[in-house]
Amino acid sequence: MYDSLGPRGGGEMDPHNKCMGGRVWCVSDICGIICAVMTWLLVTYAEFVVVTVVVGTANYPIYTTLNLLLFNVFAVLALSSHTRAMFTDPGAVPKGNATRENIQRMGLREGQVIFKCPKCCSIKPERAHHCSVCQRCIRKMDHHCPWVNNCVGENNQKFFVLFTFYIALLSLHGLFLGIYQFIICVKSEWRECSSFSPPATVVLLLFLIFESLLFAIFTAVMFFTQVNAIWNDETGIEQLKKEQASWEKKSRWRSIQAVFGRFSLTWFSPFTSPPLPTKTHSYMYAV
Q1: Structural domain that includes position 50
Q2: Per the structure, how many domains does the chain have?
Q3: Which segment of the chain is annotated as a signal peptide (predicted)?
Q4: For residues 67, 68, 73 and 79, what is the CA-based torsion angle, rounded to 10 degrees?
Q5: Less Cβ crowding at N or C end of the chain, within 10 Å?
Q6: Is 153 exposed, middle or buried, given 0-12, 13-18 or 19+ CB atoms closer than 10 A?
């Protein structure tokens, strides 16, 4: 029955959801691509308003330098985290690996049950779920996020958590700067508070404040939801379905280390990869 699915081995490249010659993971979902582009455009808009309206007309060099530096650091870290979350394989199980050869290699005990996904014809590991957007089974899948145009799973959850964390910080900083500049403009009766006309300045600042408030709330809630799920060694899907834990739960500290690695400053860096999972069966992992 399984031979008809094709002889996928552990060393063969899985071509699905890959671009740039198979070197980069990418999901061809138009809704996700639009949301991902919107994320970058919104951050770019906030950068434009902060540079041209908020700090561009300030008369305090230290205030200008510190806020500009801090805002740009948050922006770079947020967009870097977004990029890593979007283009990192979240933990996809290779399509069509449910072959007789692979099942025999698993060394199953008598009476032991394996699960096969009928949609992507793959052996379904414990805690894996099928994503209808990625059209793949994803190991330790938390959810599919259109804002990063990818699933959040075993390999990229660290980057997604950092993305929500830095966007929340960026939004809170933008909210403070926008409100503070608005107060200054009102007190000065809109004289020399911006290089733009008063009506244009009002529109730019109000949209910055609205955008910052909205995304500060949204990403902060998402960040604490993710941290809570990691803390309890559960995924968003498992919490939603209220699944009984059939797996051996890690301690809270080990659960955090499984996502971020051993404690160090690299926890907060989107430029360092999370710890690699132990590959008990190499054919369960895409090359």
Answers
A1: 27-90+147-284
A2: 1
A3: none
A4: 120
A5: N
A6: buried
Amino acid occupying residue 109: R
Residue 241 lies in a domain: yes
pLDDT value of position 68? 93
Answer whether residue 206 is part of any domain. Answer: yes
Residue positions counted in the chain = 287
What is the Cα–Cα distance from 187 to 8, expressed in whole angstroms? 70
**Does any domain span residue 120?**
no
Tokens 């301690």 locate to 251
Q: For residue 151, tell me if it sits in a domain.
A: yes
The reported pTM is 0.88
Q: Which residues contact 179 (CB under 8 A, 6 or more apart)?
A: 209
